[in-house]
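FAQ: What does the model actually see?

It sees only this:
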Amino acid sequence: MISVTFLVILFSVQKFGTSQVGLAVGPALFIWFCSLAGIGIYNLIKYDASVLRAFNPVHIYLYFKRNSVNAWYALGGCLLCATGSEAMFADLCYFSVRSIQLTFVFLVLPCLLLGYLGQAAYLTGNLNGAEKHPFFLSIPSGIFWPVLLIANIAALIASRAMTTATFSCIKQSSNLGCFPRLKIIHTSKRLMGQIYIPVINWFLLVGCLVLVCSMSSINEIGNAYGIAELGVMMMTTILVTIVMLLIWRLNIIIVLSFVVFFLGLELTFFSSVLWSVTDGSWVILVFAVIMFVIMYIWNYGSKLKYETEVERKLPMDLMREIGCNLGTIRAPGIGLLYNELAKGVPAIFGHFITTLPAIHSMVIFVCIKYVPVPVVPQNERFFFRRVCPKSYHLFRCIARYGYKDVRKENHQAFEQLLIESLEKLIRREAQQRQLESDGDEDADSEENTSFSRVFVDPNGSVYSLGVPLLAEFRGSSNSISEASISEEVNSYSPASPSISDAEHSLERELSFIRQAKESGVVYLLGHGDIRARKDSWFIKKLVINYFYAFLRKNCRRGIANLSVPHSHLIQVGMTYMV
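And it is asked to produce this:
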């Protein structure tokens, strides 16, 4: 019950972030490591300093020679001496690489060595009944209770570090399209990596409570933790090997030496831990399999859905054939069509114009993307470009948000800022047409553009939006004084008009935009789903139609942050057969 109480408290304070409790974490861990070193030195002096001979590797051979198979079984327990170190490396956003190197070399490693050497010295003089709790029995009686208190605090801090590292791993997996979208709360305005995920937090609490209440002894939890620890170590070795080959381009002899030494050592420990899989380690293996299945299904389904949307987006030739009225009635107003595609006319738009009796006189395809900065300035929020000839009144807009931006902003303020940015695009186009020679700078449609300012990965994530955040370079160039406007201009006029005609054309288009704005703005939300074709394999039907559909239904949708009145909202669904 004491452990359950501590766990509930631990996960309840997780939402306050690391920065709020950081003042207590540092001193507590420093006192803990110093206590380990001090107790170790005390035991070395009092009992037996000859244990320092353990640094001689010959004793490894002698130990295995004396104990054979039992020595191999003991390797799993030896591994637990190093557990907890991976928590620091799981997310380097909290610490610099240099700070971790200095802390581990000059504080953590010496204190741990002194602590374990002190326990070994105590055991040499107290062999009877001391092997179960050698650390606490080796503590001098005068400081037992303070050390017990700081030990529990250190354990809570280490557990909290592991929880925070789990949040970071989930977020990184979600960004890579390998995990369903979840609500992420950033607890720091300065550090992007300090986050809190409520669903994962409470899921971990339930999992820990079940584990603590179901495990009959601490040895079973230790065996389970050993499996997890070795999994982290082996995966780190494999990834570092890939970096050495592809990034650092080191000599193959050096790479092979690294792999043989470290991976061989880790596999030896892993073989020892697997022997105790029936004593609690199976829990970790089952959990790992479940997580892998969830990540694989989500990645497979998301990639298949995105590739299908890209393949079935409306071709520009078809848009030209149906004409500027889009084969339907153009009603006054502005339609903001939200979609995940950052380029091209989404197939869901064709579903809109065939399903609805009319479409708005102006349509803007809005794609929301999140960039790794705290706040995006308002005058850099939107990135516009034309999608079709001017008479179609179709535009592409990429709305960029930082991780601390208020996304549930007032919809009227959002619309006003969006229209102002669009008007700047129109004026910028008019200025460029006046400066260009006849036909020299005529651009093709968005579909045929040779220079793309948006890099989209197969999972739909945008890693480079071309037009950078310019807040820090505001005075460096006059070309960036306007709000994130595309310099990529699509002009379909056969020849450059005269200055007066250009001014009249500019005023007409600006007037058209204002009138459409006054007629009202409607948010068109397209939900694209996928289902396996009837002739698909049974496994594919099971994965797509049931597992992926369940994850997609219960994950956080991309439009969850919109604050739009229901009277201004139209949702249309579309199912792709894959």
